[in-house]
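pasting for ref. prot 1 ->
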Amino acid sequence: MKKIILMLFVMAIGAISVNAKDIKPVSETVKKSFTREFISASNVAWTWLEEKNVYKATFSFDGRQVNAYFTADGQFVGTSRYISKEQMPVIVLQQLQKKYKGYHIRTVIEQASKDQTSYYISLESEKKALMVKSTPAGDLTNYQKLAKN
């Protein structure tokens, strides 16, 4: 189940704006589930991600933009948001500096569900760009090669 949730997050981030569809109305069940999870959210915009079979709510929460994902029956799947490298656990930053000398951090996406958190960090060197996945404990894995800007 954890692998399915994680894969759902990763795939959703990669192509959200291109593959998002607004044709499926958000049910009251999904809206109520959202309100229970995010009481102080504002500026909520809903999108149906047909290929993932989930709703994505994009909203402001505590001054930051957050995405939350819900199944059609209102089950909360998790969240994703951009964070700064300073917001990552220190051990993750230490491991990145050890393993990826010569790379600098472009972006960090934090994905969280109720039982798991992962970080997707895009890195760039003079010649290469890649995305690395990390656990909060600093366990790093190469995730994807990226196009260099």
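and prot 2 ->
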Amino acid sequence: MAPAGTDGSITVTQTRSAISTKPKHRGTLRALGLHGIGTSNVLPDRPEIRGMIARVPHLVTVVESATAKSTKETR
């Protein structure tokens, strides 16, 4: 069971290229399910996901939502 306040979803969209970034940053984007500029993924709002987003905030945008329609979306 998720703690109160963390049962929502977030949509993460890659906005910048992973070219010329550190290998760990590229790996984090892959772990988030992002494969190129413009791709999006709906993920649960959990601390481990937030930690991955905190590693690459300059490459992604985050939109918080209470419910998600799909688990993965691409351009």
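Strands lie at 9-14, 40-44, 60-65, 72-73.
The helical segments are 23-31, 47-55.
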